[in-house]
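Researcher: I've got a protein sequence and the SMILES for flavin-adenine dinucleotide. Could you write out the 3D structure of the bound complex as structure tokens? I'd like something to compare against our soaking experiments later this week.
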Amino acid sequence: MENQILAVCLPQQGSLPSSAFEVLSVAKNLAAQSQGKVFAAVCGDKAQTLAKNLSVSGVEKIFAVEHPALATNNDEIHAQAISKILEGNKFGAILFPGTIFGKSLAALMSARLKAGLAVDITEITMANGKIQAKRAAYSGNALATVSVAQETALFIVLPMVFPQAEKNAATPEIVPIPFAPQEAKMEYVSFQPEASSEIDLGTAERIVSGGRGLGNAEGFKIIRELAETLKAAVGASRAAVDAGWITYSHQVGLTGKTVHPKLYMACGISGQIQHLAGMSSSSTIVALNTDPECPMMKTASLSVAGDLYEMIPLIVAEIKKRRGG
Ligand SMILES: Cc1cc2nc3c(=O)[nH]c(=O)nc-3n(C[C@H](O)[C@H](O)[C@H](O)COP(=O)(O)OP(=O)(O)OC[C@H]3O[C@@H](n4cnc5c(N)ncnc54)[C@H](O)[C@@H]3O)c2cc1C
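Model: Sure. Here is the predicted complex with flavin-adenine dinucleotide in place.
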């Protein structure tokens, strides 16, 4: 295997998000196992400035492709830019962040390169000169170990699973790549951020989640009250989302967001494997449930058996009392 590894660091709204640093830490880990070298790709309308801020040690070079056409998430144009980097460089592994854009770009690159792609990996190792990755299979009921047969293997890194590469005083060499985009069949129309004043689930340090045990949509009032008291984000199980009690953007789990906050409070959530897949790496899990035998109560660091409608007001009152009102 070629032991050069490329981490594709995708900007979001003009800066490099946490997913870019997660991809870099995975690349560094893989390089450490294979005596390999880590390279980063930054494509955007301000790629050179972003590359200068990518001060992560252990990165050999940062390929910066800068062009106004790369300001938006047009898969085709970005695939052209990455292909340009690949013209003069060979990589054994190319890693993409598991964001919506990262996933569609990785799929397009996999088709262009006729290279295998492992999606949503949660672990990556070198074994007998071959990269092996782990990913959830059968709705999270099993873990698959996958490897790619081609010389270049593509991987999508599941967000919020790996640590972020630390920024320090490092100054990796920046290699500007000249780029003139070809006409694309795809047109970028607009970006409409979700109107929300709530704390972002993906980066929250504390999350209070509600499930079917709430009984109805009104139940999220009490969840929001607890979340506000704790300055936490609001999460939900798929059962609550499917019932229409809260929007999908709050869903935690296999088909929702993967989170790892310091505190995760699961209120009226049974803890089915698909939900646990999204939050079991939380530092402290507190479960409030009427059923002491359910999986969430067994997984939690602290399990409190009882009716959430009785417990949450007591918890809120106690926090307020300790804070002095
Ligand atoms: C392909 C696939 C993907 C999926 N993806 C996801 C996903 O991303 N996220 C996800 O969450 N699920 C997902 N699911 C669904 C998952 O299997 C479960 O159905 C779902 O997580 C159950 O949600 P729940 O725990 O809220 O509901 P339930 O399993 O019905 O649990 C409700 C809990 O509330 C408790 N309860 C009831 N009343 C009270 C009360 N008054 N006070 C306290 N506790 C109470 C009950 O004891 C019970 O434990 C997926 C399923 C499939 C097949």
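Model: Residues 139, 211-213, 237-240, 251-256, 268-270, 272, 274-275, 278, 288-291, 294, 307-309 surround flavin-adenine dinucleotide (CB under 6 Å). Residues 5 and 38 are 5 Å apart (CA to CA).
Researcher: Great, I'll pass this along to the crystallography team.
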